Amino acid sequence: MIEAKRNTLTMATYRRELAGLVDEATAASSSDVYEVQAIDLALCMAELFNRDKLQAVTLWSRIATGLEHSAKENSANALTLVNGCLLHVQADATRAACNDRLGGLLHVASEQSELWARQWSRWISGHIYIIVAKARAQWRERNQSDE
Amino acid sequence: MSNSNYQLFVVHRAVSPITHMEGTTGNVAVLMRQGVLYEGSIHRVPCLTGNAMRNRMLREPGSHLLKTRLGLYGHLSAHQDRFLSSGQERSEKGNSVDVGLKRRGYELMPHMRLLGGTLPSQVIEGRAQVGFGVLCCRESRTARAAIIPHDWPMEESDLLSYQSMIEFRQYTRKSDDVDTHLRDGEVPDHSMMIFGGYTLVSGSVFVQRIDMRGCRDIDAGAACAAIELWDGTVGGQKSRGHGHLHCEYQLLCDGATVEAAPLIDAYEKHVEDHKQAAIDWLYEAVREPTPQGLASAKN
Lengths: 147, 299
Prior knowledge:
Strand content of chain A: under 5%
Structural class of chain A: mainly alpha
Helix content of chain A: over 70%
Order of helices and strands of chain B: EEEEEHHHHEEEEHEHEEHEEHHH
Oligomer: heterodimer
Radius of gyration of chain B: 22 Å
């Protein structure tokens, strides 16, 4: 005797399934915002890159791997994602505490929901090279204007 | 017994990562996808093919049910077993249509009427049209609208993009053959082989429609019985081991929702009542191919 255990689909159950897939982040944010924040994070990493312990020539490759690993490991929390990135470049705590860019980034990250963090980490994972390339362009532009 | 147009609307939720593959590039498994138009451009959205679902969800569990109820396990030739399990292939040349045999088969075996099959020299068409499993994502909105029952409204909010549901997984594998081919004194090389592929994350949802035109109650019952017995696996490979779905379905008859339970009961009763006639038909229709027949089929 076969029971019809799976014959339970109704409009309500279908809607409930879809409710778990609603992209709340699209209303609150867009890929432009993710990009701005991700580039800001990469620039933070460049500013706080520990040149005493790490080779300067590895700056951008280390930033890329830091973003990649941290986005994978800390996908549910934007703050721990930032922290993971800074650990990867062995940032000095004193310099990190004084960094204005990092302060702004942490302010934005602390206000975001878990869903936003997930979307952001996913966006970062899929755009590592774009982030690094754009961050480096901004980095060079800023250094040239300083000179 | 009157014929009606039945429709199954099935919703699948992935309870493990899905690795339903299109193929490989190098040692990377690529997901099966279908193109959908969204905001003026084509997006290749992961999907479940109708063919795979037809086999895994309907044919395999349906044939298992038949073989169990008719006591056929251990009593079938390879060809008869394949006819029930996979539809078989032609083993004789020509296309000799035996209308009587086909009609009796349809009457006795709703499973075959639903899914069709190939007798040695005759292709028997099935009534079930199994559609693709369409991933519920932002880009597939139009495709989903054509699948869900017409009186169900579409969701108002944007769903996640399919891109956010895809992950990359990497595995390592050691060949067990290495040690067995070693000569005396040779050191085993346990270097791992890396292989990987894309997967759809757990929690992804698919919608699917199965149309069964001109079917009897027992034919629809055969489809529902198969779905109830299905273990939920789809796609994947032995080495990766993914591909497990949880499904719920709704059965419609000429547009109105109907309960599946009475139809399943009717199908089970039909199988029981026509047990011997169905076995006789199977032995008569799917006879062992002769060497001459096989040779002529290949030419």
